[in-house]
Amino acid sequence: MLSLKKNETGSMTLEAALIIPIFLIFFMVLANFIRIAVADMALTKVVSDTVEDIAAYSYPAVALTDAATTKIDDWIHRTSNGVVNLGDLEKLIYKMTENLGYEFSIYDWGGLLLPNKLTNTVRNKFANTVGDTMFDPEKLTVDVKYTNDMQGSIEITGTLEVTLYIPFVDYSIYLKKRAHEGLWSLSSQPAG
């Protein structure tokens, strides 16, 4: 007599072989979504905090610049017996430097300091926020736009390249965050 029982040995192995890779890929995709969310929140926080810090500390910097400018202008005016003032010297320096392709203003404290040093500041804040093991801070680029007028403002754009760690996928996502803040100023700069 024939046995009508099915032989089910190995069926659990087959099911596991089909389900486990799908589960692992799903888990890796989920982990990458979490990584992207963490990077997005950290980048938003770092860019916003940096702009707010610069805006908050711009008032003392402008106050110091205005006080120094007044003292220097008074000294130049006294030394030259009223013939030359600081505005005349600035125009002379501007004409000398415009041929070199650099626009110079003695009032441009932010333009001289910010673009080069700010990238490292934002990268360090980002590394401190998320740790440098999860993301490479070197993949964070920073763009600074600074206006130097009576209502000066600063805009920082941070762009982070996030590499996805999914099997058979070689892809990077670029997260871009922008923060803009008006600078506190005494608005006593000479018009120009």
Estimated radius of gyration: 29 Å
Ends: how far apart? 108 Å
Strand content: 15-25%
Q: Spans of 5+ residues with little confidence (pLDDT < 50)? A: 186-192
Mean pLDDT across all amino acids: 77
Structural class: alpha+beta
**Bulk shape:** rod-shaped
Q: Would you report the number of β strands?
A: 3
What topology, given as strand order, has the largest sheet? 1-2-3
Q: Number of helix segments? A: 3
Largest sheet: 3 strands, antiparallel
Helix fraction, binned, reads 40-55%
Query: Regarding quaternary structure, how should these chains be classified?
Result: single chain
Listing every helix as H and every strand as E from the N terminus to the C terminus, the arrangement reads: HHHEEE
Name some characteristics of this structure.
192 residues; alpha+beta; 3-stranded antiparallel β-sheet; 3 strands; 16% strand; rod-shaped; disordered C terminus
Q: How do you describe this structure in short?
A:
54% of the residues lie in helices and 16% in strands.
